[in-house]
Write a structure and sequence with these properties.
The protein is of the alpha/beta class. Helices cover 36% and strands 23% of the residues. The protein starts with a strand and ends with a strand. Bound molecules: N-(iminomethyl)-L-glutamic acid and fe (iii) ion.
Amino acid sequence: MSILITNIKKLIQVRGASVRKISGAEMKILPCIENAFLFIEGENISAFGKMSELNSKSEIRNSKLEIDATGKLVFPCWCDSHTHIVYAGSREQEFVDRINGLTYEEIAKRGGGILNSVKKLQGASEEELIESAIRRLNEIMKQGTGAVEIKSGYGLTVKDEIKMLHVIQKLKPHSPLAIKATFLGAHAVPPGTTKEKYIDAIINEMLPSIAKEKLADYCDVFCERNYFTSDDTIKILSAANKLGLKGKVHAEQLSNSGGVKAGVECEAISVDHLEYLNDEDISALKNSDTMPTILPGAQWFLQLPHPPVRKMLNAGLPVAIASDYNPGSSPSGNMNFVLSIACVQYKMTPEEAINAATINSAYAMDLSVTHGSITAGKKANVFITKEIPDYSFLPYSFANDLIDIVIINGKLIIDN
Ligand code: NIG
Ligand code: FE
């Protein structure tokens, strides 16, 4: 099957094959081609260029499906490198409790928060979890997401963490999205045990079975007061590294807890949240390959302080954006809206936000070789917008549905 998209008003995020991430001042640059065509063969992007160059390429003209994109833009699909979309039930009562004055931490202390979702997940069957997760995957795909990372972390027993990871593996044949799995056993300490005993179970029971069954690509830790310390984080990620699992960290979300430094020390692929990131953390990140990732949906929904994005960019760091789609702190995976939050609240330019949510978030799940830009040979994961004036219109026109067509792995998936 081949698809030719013609008369594209602007083809967005055109990059060379060697680009893996974009940092600092370079994030202000978003390479585009105006009045372009894009040719897809099989699962991959085969060629693209100016419409004026198309007539000379007769092999392209014979393609099967032609889409006229007059007045429309073509983007590489969003890469969402941080989600918790396998969960049971919902937590709107906690949303109401916060409106009435309680904080996220106060709700957690009363047995709400993560432990609320743990109870619900432990009572759900694999089939129920698969069904609701597929619904969420289809929903984000419609909103332009083409690759997603999904965490465990609502199981918190050997059996239930492995159940969650099995569910994530079973989603793969049901969805064309690229899916990466993360083991987040260290999301909270379950009731009825001590933190020391639970960490022992993570290291000596959960991690070895997960590595043996190849159920996860990454291991994550919620490094936060009342959860896991930076020493706990180093201990868990070191054990994971020995088994071939790279680290990720929920870091500096509610307080500065040393998660970034622990992540950098363990060569984590990303450190995520970063509301309480400080200057020392920025220095640590400068000498690392770890991707600092902001989660604007969760910051906005919980009304936390803004992560110091401009400071990070001025220091020359890359920044990635992900949704953190989860039932507690970000019950939406709409990356278009997440970009709007980053632009409005942190004053990221649309170019910076788009770089952060494509090539850099692909890097944060080891996918920037195949995803995150319009590059010959990469997966044909693209979306075509409705007729809009320019790419800035997307974050500007917040929460509106501006996507017309989604193509994943060269297949037309959604035609709105
Ligand atoms: O990324 N911060 C910890 N974990 C999730 C929230 C999980 C929950 O509230 O269920 C997060 O925000
Ligand atoms: Fe999270």
